[in-house]
Amino acid sequence: MAEANQPTVSDRVTKALEGVNLTQYEISLYLTLIKHGALNARELSEKSSVPYSRIYNILSMLLDKGYITRDDNERPSTYKANPPDEALMHARKKLVDDFNAHSKIIVEELNDIYLKNSNAPFQVSLLIYRGKEAVFTKSVALLNAATQSIMIAANNLEDLKENGIIDALTEKRLKGIVDIKILIEQDDEHKEIVEELTKIGQVRVRDQLFGTGIAVDSVDAIILLKAQLFSITSYFGMKSDFKGFGSIAAEYFSYLYNTATEYTIE
Predict the structure, then answer these.
(1) Which of 120, 134, 164, 183 sits 20 to 30 Å CA-CA off 223?
(2) Under a CB-based contact definition with an 8 Å cutoff, are residues 173 and 180 in contact?
(3) Residues pairing with 42 in the sheet
(4) pLDDT tens digits, residue range 220-240?
(5) Number of domains in the chain
(6) Residues 144-157: tens digit of each pLDDT
(7) What is the gyration radius of the CA atoms in the chain, in angstroms?
């Protein structure tokens, strides 16, 4: 039973903590520290459902994940919950770092073996969107789906402004996505648009770009092209269901971005 005057936590929060890969014992300890403040291991065991024989092992895992901190100035040592937003940011970074480190080992060890036994080509779908409205509707939807990072290379700033791209970027920035990298051509005629972009993300400049590309979270991307066909301006958008398409696009963008010049407001 919950102690008197202690706030209760909804099942929705418990399920959400399970969804970010915390075990039941980890959840129990973290919520106990959230409710009661700093406690030592014995007090934690008494106020939670975690047996004392398991307490230090579970506390060690929570420390490693960044959900709690330990104060060794106290005797015995006490533990305190980190603020939920800070804890989740730390946990996400560790998860991504660990995933990248493990992925490197897996790919280095297994890729050559796989390729030696699978040399046949495979088919993937290349999705083509035609028409200005369809192309930019899909582009805005892609930006709206971003959760971690956005990369955009564009050779036409008016298209970004007039077709909702800048509005979508602004909204994502307001929602907390700060990893936004923007690569543009040198454009002295649209300085007001460039300065607007500098308030959204990190802007760099190259002498020339071909078309527009958007990559989000390094997993999905779209390439936008505009061409004059029979004196009519036509828009095309290209996507693929191939899982590596977004990663390849992000790698290519990173190369272009890292070799470009940082934009400075005169």
Answers:
(1) 120
(2) yes
(3) none
(4) 999 999 887 777 889 999 999
(5) 2
(6) 999 999 999 998 89
(7) 25
